[in-house]
From TrEMBL:
This is Extracellular solute-binding protein. InterPro entries: Ferric-bd. Belongs to the bacterial solute-binding protein 1 family. It comes from Hyphobacterium lacteum. The lineage of its organism: Bacteria, Pseudomonadati, Pseudomonadota, Alphaproteobacteria, Maricaulales. It comes from the Bacteria. The keyword Ribosomal protein does not apply.
């Protein structure tokens, strides 16, 4: 989203929230997501319930700080953000009300729901290993730990250590194996860098195509966005690149987009209705078909053949809350091993 447009959107929708604070037929949503799937879900929710959505959209850290600063005066009813570490920050800032998600998120596995009831994951994203089909034998990589093998020296592209997805991946390794093992892994991966970390996940995929590296670590939906781009050259690029969903060791790392009801929600019943709708068949289908994210509801139906081809991977069932719990340790480890 254009930055100026985002700022304007925040200003306009903030005014709408303030003007509508006395209206019982609204829900004020603060979201760090900016996908077409979400716009579809908001419209579908209003069409089904008659409840109007007031949207404030900005980066996760900005949203957290704004709601925290507003305190009891905040008009926020629902808070949506991405990645376990940001959900943890929002929880620690006291932004969420404890909620019985068993009544709202039917069919969602326990490991993507906060055990204390502050948030739940409504869309799943996996961190997978992309590789050059011509130069890499995928049978040689069955887990993230294999990326530390010296055989991959000079062959790995990956984002910087300030990227929340990488922080959560390392946090999962620390949760499973301990800080010392996590540090040893990170140090070895640094030794295998093909280049200094730069760019986003799409840039890592393109770097494989450009011959800058043979292996990259990315979220699966970035690959599918390129594959569905309709641009012949981009589609041809993805044809030359494969994805490995790790099955060895702890399985495939799973992260989430998560939702919580705001601690001081002025429209609590509407907030619950909206959260319940996020887990409805219509919303779950939208995340899979439009955003290429895996549904959080087990067995949700959707029509996306490329995403469906990846379904059935062996997921790491570590509770997502542990990623947030170990995020600060992961950041310290990254600093110690010199991961830029």
């Amino acid at each position: 989203m254009n930055r100026l447009f985002a700022i304007a959107l925040i200003t306009v929708t903030a005014a709408a929230c303030n003007q509508s604070s006395g209206d019982d037929n609204v829900v004020n949503i603060y979201s760090a997501r900016h996908y077409d799937s979400d716009a579809y879900v908001y419209d579908a929710f209003t069409a089904e319930t008659g409840i109007e959505v007031n949207l404030i959209e900005a980066g996760g850290d900005l949203l957290i700080e704004r709601i925290r600063t507003d305190g009891e005066r905040s008009p926020a009813d629902v808070v949506i953000t991405v990645d376990a570490s940001r959900l943890q920050r929002a929880e620690e800032a006291g932004l969420f009300a404890q909620t019985d998600f068993s009544a709202l998120a039917d069919g969602v596995q326990a490991h993507v729901i906060d055990p204390d009831g502050y948030w739940a994951g409504f869309a799943l994203r996996t961190r997978v290993i992309a590789y050059n089909r011509e130069t890499v034998d995928p049978s040689e990589i069955s887990s993230y730990l294999d990326l530390a093998d010296p055989r991959w020296q000079g062959q790995i592209c990956i984002r910087s250590s300030d990227n929340a997805y990488n922080q959560s991946l390392l946090a999962s390794i620390i949760a499973h194996h301990g800080e010392q093992a996590g540090e040893a892994w990170a140090r070895s991966v640094v030794a295998n860098f093909a280049r200094a970390p730069q760019g986003g996940d799409t840039d890592q995929i393109r770097a494989i195509g450009a011959g800058e590296c043979d292996i990259a670590v990315v979220n699966h939906y970035y690959y599918l966005r390129l594959a569905h781009s309709g641009d012949p050259a981009t589609v041809e690029l993805t044809d030359r690149i494969g994805l490995i969903f790790p099955s060895g060791n702890t399985g495939t790392h799973v992260n989430i987009s998560g939702v919580g009801i705001a601690a001081n929600a002025p429209h609590g019943e509407n907030a619950e209705a909206f959260v319940r709708f996020l887990f409805s068949p219509e919303a779950q289908r939208a995340y899979a078909e439009i955003a290429n994210e895996f549904p959080a509801v087990t067995g949700a139906a959707y029509d996306n053949a490329d995403l469906r081809a990846f379904d059935g991977f062996e997921a790491d069932t570590l509770n997502i809350s542990e990623l947030g719990d170990n995020a600060e340790t992961a950041r310290r480890v990254f600093d110690r091993v010199g991961w830029p």
